[in-house]
Amino acid sequence: MAKIAIIGEGVKVTGFGLAGAIVLPAEEPDAVRAAWRSLGTDVAIVILTSRAARVLDGEPSSWPLTVVMPP
Fold it and tell me: Which of its termini does the chain have fewer beta carbons within 10 Å around, N or C?
Protein backbone atom coordinates (compact mmCIF):
# COMPACT_ATOMS: atom_id res chain seq x y z
CA MET A 1 0.00 0.00 0.00
CA ALA A 2 1.26 3.46 -0.89
CA LYS A 3 2.09 5.84 1.94
CA ILE A 4 1.98 9.58 2.54
CA ALA A 5 4.92 11.45 4.06
CA ILE A 6 5.03 14.94 5.54
CA ILE A 7 8.25 17.00 5.63
CA GLY A 8 8.72 20.34 7.34
CA GLU A 9 8.74 22.22 10.59
CA GLY A 10 7.76 20.00 13.50
CA VAL A 11 5.01 22.27 14.78
CA LYS A 12 3.28 22.13 11.37
CA VAL A 13 3.68 18.42 10.58
CA THR A 14 3.44 16.48 13.83
CA GLY A 15 -0.36 16.19 13.87
CA PHE A 16 -0.42 14.34 10.55
CA GLY A 17 0.99 11.29 12.33
CA LEU A 18 -2.44 10.81 13.93
CA ALA A 19 -3.81 10.15 10.44
CA GLY A 20 -1.14 7.54 9.71
CA ALA A 21 1.26 9.65 7.66
CA ILE A 22 5.01 9.25 7.92
CA VAL A 23 6.08 12.42 9.74
CA LEU A 24 9.57 13.73 9.04
CA PRO A 25 10.11 16.89 11.08
CA ALA A 26 12.91 18.97 9.60
CA GLU A 27 13.76 22.46 10.82
CA GLU A 28 17.02 23.11 8.96
CA PRO A 29 17.75 22.85 5.21
CA ASP A 30 20.12 19.90 5.65
CA ALA A 31 17.44 18.05 7.64
CA VAL A 32 14.87 18.70 4.89
CA ARG A 33 17.23 17.30 2.25
CA ALA A 34 18.02 14.27 4.43
CA ALA A 35 14.32 13.61 4.99
CA TRP A 36 13.69 13.81 1.24
CA ARG A 37 16.51 11.36 0.52
CA SER A 38 15.19 8.96 3.19
CA LEU A 39 11.83 8.44 1.51
CA GLY A 40 11.09 4.82 0.74
CA THR A 41 9.81 3.59 -2.60
CA ASP A 42 6.43 2.92 -0.95
CA VAL A 43 5.81 6.66 -0.49
CA ALA A 44 3.43 7.90 -3.17
CA ILE A 45 2.66 11.42 -1.90
CA VAL A 46 4.80 13.93 -0.03
CA ILE A 47 3.32 17.00 1.63
CA LEU A 48 5.83 19.78 2.21
CA THR A 49 5.57 22.91 4.29
CA SER A 50 6.26 26.03 2.23
CA ARG A 51 9.68 26.43 3.86
CA ALA A 52 10.64 22.81 3.08
CA ALA A 53 9.45 23.26 -0.49
CA ARG A 54 11.77 26.27 -0.92
CA VAL A 55 14.70 24.15 0.27
CA LEU A 56 13.88 21.41 -2.23
CA ASP A 57 13.20 23.77 -5.12
CA GLY A 58 15.20 22.51 -8.07
CA GLU A 59 15.49 18.91 -6.84
CA PRO A 60 14.60 16.61 -9.73
CA SER A 61 11.34 14.85 -9.00
CA SER A 62 9.30 12.64 -11.24
CA TRP A 63 8.38 10.71 -8.12
CA PRO A 64 6.64 11.02 -5.71
CA LEU A 65 3.68 13.33 -6.17
CA THR A 66 4.51 16.42 -4.13
CA VAL A 67 2.16 19.05 -2.77
CA VAL A 68 2.91 22.18 -0.75
CA MET A 69 0.91 23.39 2.24
CA PRO A 70 -0.29 26.96 2.09
CA PRO A 71 1.84 29.30 4.24
Answer: N
